[in-house]
Amino acid sequence: MKTALHGGTELDVRAIRSDFPILARPVRRTPLVYLDNAATTQKPKAVLESIRAYYEEMNSNIHRGVHYLSELATKAYEDARDKVRRFLNAADAREIVFTRGATEAINLVAYAYGRAHVGPGDEILITGMEHHSNIVPWQFLRDEKGAKLQVAPIDDRGELVFEEFERLLTPRTKLVAVAHVSNALGTVNPIKRIVALAHARGVPVLVDGAQAVPHLTVDVRDLDCDFYAFSGHKIYAPTGIGVLYGKLALLDRMPPYQGGGEMILSVTFEKTEYKKTPYKFEAGTPNIEGAIALGAAIEYLNGIGIDHIAAHEHDLLRYATERLSAVPGLRIIGTAREKAGVISFELAGVHPHDVGTILDQEGIAIRTGHHCAQPVMDRFGVAATARASFGLYNTMEEVDALVAALGKVSQVFGKS
Ligand code: C6P
Questions:
Q1: What H or E segment, with its residue span, contains residue 409?
Q2: 298 and 385, same domain (yes or no)
Q3: Do 95 and 189 fall within a single domain?
Q4: Domain boundary among 271, 303, 335
Q5: What are the pLDDT digits (tens) for 5-29?
């Protein structure tokens, strides 16, 4: 099960699959075909073992204990922060804030940066392909501040209409917030170009990287973005841990997001002094084992090489696009020239939920629905789509299984 890659190297998918215990379990008495990686990825043994090791060897609270276990756990937590820093090529580990996920990271910026910098009549510019997590926090801010949410449209391929984006970037724009990769369409946005344009007008940019980090090498210094948000569970780490990267100068100037323990230097009833960045944003006992496991996931991915993973997934995506395009009545929604990880589609005359239910009977897990991106569904005139999304352990044979099962769907609905 070796896959030839563009660079001439090979990804040993069989060996990779054996790292993921859940892939060996049957589902509905057939081998599991897991094609719902955009929703969440499965976890390799290295990640599972890091959680066990944390609880067996160092479980304790961090940053406040003077005892041995607390020192160990604090070190492992801060080491994980540095692994994330390297993963994103950030300049300084203080630029890495641990959150519960991409959603919390975006809310943190909307709350702490947005409230300080956005006023009545100001504008926040997003795009028409955002996930609800990159829409709703800005609506809160808009409503609280009397600001305006501007939306740059997307075209029929699901690509950003760049001229419109440029037109909507006005002297009133205080922040641009844009997905790196669309979860519903797979479109990869030209982030460097977006950032360069916004910066030329003095506007900072937040990038929602939830669907990008599993598939692309991300270098926040090269992108020059001001904020970058992602979730651990989409890169083979557990749920409940995520990251906000922010440029240090910006984070330093932002007030805390939540109050509580861990984020303070001193408290009296009159006045509280906060810790410095990033700790002032990490109120309460954090998800210690989650951060450590995220570090383990990053090490695991580095061991394989994100570029190798990207090339393998690119091959899968190309093969799946080819095969699915040949299925009678199937329409792919999202045909951007640059795509990663995801294929959304509809099958004429069959509700996506029915497609998902029948595929499930074959042991094939995909996601159906609006994918928390209802404005994208509206743009394409559908209520929902079926979505297959790929991870590093998926194979061409699994794509074949998907296509064969779609044939059964068509038979059930009398389409062929
Ligand atoms: N998309 C999907 O199936 P959280 O829930 O915080 O881990 O991630 C939110 C999020 C933000 N931005 C994008 C682009 C995303 O895709 C997601 C999560 C999942 O597509 C669950 S709805």
A1: helix 396-412
A2: no
A3: yes
A4: 303
A5: 434 457 899 999 999 999 999 999 9
Please identify, by atom number, the ligand 1 atom nearest to the C-alpha of residue 231. Answer: 7
Q: From the CA of 39, give the closest atom in ligand 1.
A: 3
Rg of the chain over all Cα atoms, to the nearest angstrom:
22
* Nearest C-alpha neighbor of 354 from the set 368, 365, 339: 368
297: Cβ below 6 Å to ligand 1? no
Quote the ligand 1 centre to 63 CA distance (angstroms).
30
Phi and psi (nearest 5°) for 212?
-95, -45
In which domain, by residue range, is 116 found?
A: 48-303
Same domain, 156 and 140: yes
Q: Domain tally for the chain?
A: 2
The tokens of 117 are what?
Answer: 């910098």
Ligand 1 neighbour 231 (Cβ under 6 A)? yes
- Candidate list 372, 382, 396, 403, residue with the active-site label: 372
Domain stops at, among 278, 303, 328: 303
Which of 104, 107, 130, 131 has most ligand 1 atoms within 8 Å of its beta carbon, as the pocket-test mutant? 131
Residue 208 Cβ < 6 Å to ligand 1: yes
300 backbone dihedrals φ, ψ, rounded to 5°: -60, -45
CA–CA gap between residue 294 and residue 93 (Å, rounded): 15
Local confidence band at 256 (pLDDT 50, 70, 90 cut-offs):
very high
Better pLDDT: 399 or 65: 399
- Answer yes or no: 372 catalytic: yes
Q: Is the pTM above the cut of 0.90?
A: yes
Q: What is the CATH number of the domain that holds 404?
A: 3.90.1150.10
The pLDDT of 96-102, averaged and rounded, is 98
